[in-house]
Design brief:
Elements: E1 10-12, H1 14-21, H2 34-44, H3 50-64, H4 66-77, H5 88-95, H6 100-118, E2 125-127, E3 133-139, E4 142-146, H7 155-168, E5 172-177, H8 187-196, E6 200-203, H9 206-215, E7 225-227, H10 232-241, E8 246-247, E9 255-260, H11 266-277, E10 284-289, H12 292-306, H13 312-321, E11 324-327, H14 331-341, E12 345-349, E13 365-368, H15 374-379, E14 405-411, H16 415-431, H17 435-445
Parallel strand pairs: 1-11, 4-5, 4-7, 5-6, 7-8, 9-10, 9-12, 10-11, 12-13
Antiparallel strand pairs: 2-3, 3-14
């Protein structure tokens, strides 16, 4: 057991909750740890902001290709120089390094993820007999998927992102991953990539991976859209290249909100909070309850369980930074606060969770009851665990097949339709001062 010096803050009432625990920190205000700043000063010189460092990396990879990727892999991630691409021999060898039981688990998860996303596929439609309109549904041609993690290699994130791409029919799926100090990619990640059916795995972490996807290098094909969450450098790089390439979303640190009443088990509440807190020191593990007694019990239980965890020091930091418990005046107020916060994950540990589901307006994913823990959703349930963070669940959705598809409008109206509506269209064009538009219509109308 590890002794951890932290307590779980408890605030009471909506006003205090909004001011202290539910106030979001803008991405631009996030500061990297001191060791990262020192590394950047060593490589790029003093006085550069994180955004400026990212721009330096993007420009270098655009100009130098693979050479810059290898240089930044070594200088930023501490990975030994190696070929940017992973060979088939390395993938085959990875199977010998992963326990058969884990391989079976990855295959089981892959099957459930595939089955879920196949239900999301949509077809184009054409209605020539009625009005000559329709839409074509086409997958993007090349997807670049960033999968963070070395010490925690996150094969689940690879499955949750690459499999929807394959279901959508993407022609070429490339995965980028930071390498270990010896230059290798974690074996379990290579096995997951193979199970998911990706076309290539490249050794590239951070902003250099995003640059390689955006501009292409000798080894990495330029992609049409970039997917997957990462750290601060990945996130800022994705923001910087958007427009030159598509991106799925801007992801921040993970967040989970447990909504519980007096019937909830404090041991389970604490376990669910800690499951997300162990991801990142900037994670947001939050409990909202209308039961003061439960709040006190969970606060004690979090500290007790954290001391038993291998990553307990990370969970403690997460609670110091952005975690805590809100005691709401009522369950209705708790739901209102949850909708305002728009969490990535919303766990309903309530006597009657289904009674609350219709009131949920903003969340990346809703986990209903004790039998549906968020941890199951992270690995095995079926929907992608790549979900909107930072309050973006107010307008965004979890990663899905739809993110890998695009719609092409189809217009094939008959001459009869043009004769019926063309004059009205021409009048609108002239009102806008676009007379060439109007003439293109009027010449078809005989005017």
């Amino acid at each position: 057991m590890t002794k951890l010096d932290f307590t779980v803050p408890i605030v009471r009432g909506a006003v205090a909750a909004r001011e202290r625990l539910l106030r979001r920190v803008p991405l631009e205000d996030t500061e990297p740890p001191e060791y990262v700043r020192e590394r950047d000063r060593r490589l790029f010189g003093p006085g550069l902001s994180v955004t400026e460092v990212v721009q330096r990396i993007l420009s270098a990879v655009r100009a130098e290709g693979d050479a810059a990727v290898r240089r930044f892999n070594e200088g930023l991630d501490g990975a030994a120089p190696a070929s940017v691409t992973v060979s088939r021999d390395e993938v085959d060898a990875a199977y010998q390094q992963v326990a058969p039981e884990l391989i079976d688990a990855l295959r089981l998860a892959a099957g459930r993820i595939r089955d879920y996303h196949q239900r999301q596929l949509r077809q184009g439609w054409v209605n020539f007999e009625d009005n000559g309109l329709g839409q074509l549904v086409r997958p993007i041609e090349r997807a670049g998927i960033y999968v963070a993690g070395t010490a925690a290699p996150l094969p689940s994130s690879l499955l949750m992102t690459a499999i929807p791409a394959r279901v959508a029919g993407v022609d070429h799926v490339v995965v980028a991953s930071p390498a270990l100090p010896d230059g290798s990619i974690p074996a379990v990640k290579l096995v997951a990539a193979d199970i998911a059916g990706v076309d290539a795995v490249v050794r590239a972490g951070g902003a250099q991976a995003i640059a390689a996807f955006t501009y292409g290098t000798e080894s990495v094909p330029r992609v049409d859209k970039i997917f997957g969450p990462g750290g601060l450098f990945v996130t800022l790089a994705k923001k910087a290249v958007f427009g030159s390439v598509g991106i799925d979303a801007i992801y921040g640190p993970t967040e989970t909100m447990v909504l519980a009443d007096e019937s909830a088990d404090p041991v389970i509440c604490a376990a669910d909070l800690l499951a997300q807190a162990e991801h990142d020191e900037l994670a947001s593990p939050l409990l909202i309850t209308d039961s003061p007694a439960l709040a006190e019990q969970v606060a004690v239980e979090v500290v007790r369980q954290a001391a038993l965890l291998e990553r307990g020091h990370i969970t403690a930091a997460a609670f110091r930074n952005r975690g805590g418990i809100v005691v709401a005046a009522s369950l209705e107020e708790a739901v209102q606060l949850a909708n305002e916060y728009a969490p990535e994950h919303l766990c309903l540990l309530l006597r009657d969770p289904w009674a609350v589901v219709p009131s949920v307006r903003n969340a990346g994913g809703v986990f209903v009851g004790e039998a549906s823990p968020e941890a199951l959703g992270d690995y095995m349930a079926g929907p992608s665990h790549v979900m909107p963070t930072g309050g973006s669940a107010r307008w965004a959705s979890p990663l899905s097949v739809h993110d890998f598809l695009k719609i092409i409008s189809l217009v094939a109206v008959s001459d009869e339709v043009t004769q019926q509506v063309g004059l009205a269209a021409a009048r609108i064009a002239r009102a806008e001062g676009l007379t060439a538009h109007a003439r293109a219509l009027e010449v078809r109308l005989g005017h």
